[in-house]
Amino acid sequence: VFNLLNKYRPETAAAKKQRIKDTAAATAAGKEAPAKVPCQLKFGLKHVTTLVEEKKASLVLIACDVDPLELVLWLPALCRKMEVPFLIVKDKARLGTLVHQKTAAVVALTKVNKEDESQLKIFQDLGNEKFNKNTELLRKWGGGIMGLKTQAKLDKRAKAVAIEEAKKAASMR
Known about the structure:
173 residues, alpha+beta, elongated
């Protein structure tokens, strides 16, 4: 995933300034202006949310170590509702390096060049299969391990039910 996204890193401030300067020079000389802004990653929680709501995002990557988690907790549900494929990746610092920041909680890819469309389609299918349409993921919350107090309470309750059943069985004889 990161090899694909590395091709679409946003341009740095210096590169953007140079591109604008080249475009201005080309228009002043009467030549045809170079191509518009290239395809690039979009980042930032509000911006990505807007892209998902407008169904402009083709792939969303969410970092798993966002703190507080409530910042991105609702985003998978929104992606499912809007049918935008999403992936959960390991480190927000890795997402940050893609967009020239220290960290990034969420990044989105809106479009890619023709040569990368097949690779994007593979990742979209993977996101749909593993996260969007995975019903097991929706049903499973936590690890299912209860605390010691809860285990003791349930054991005590099970013993009381067993004793009660034994008394009922004895009284029926």
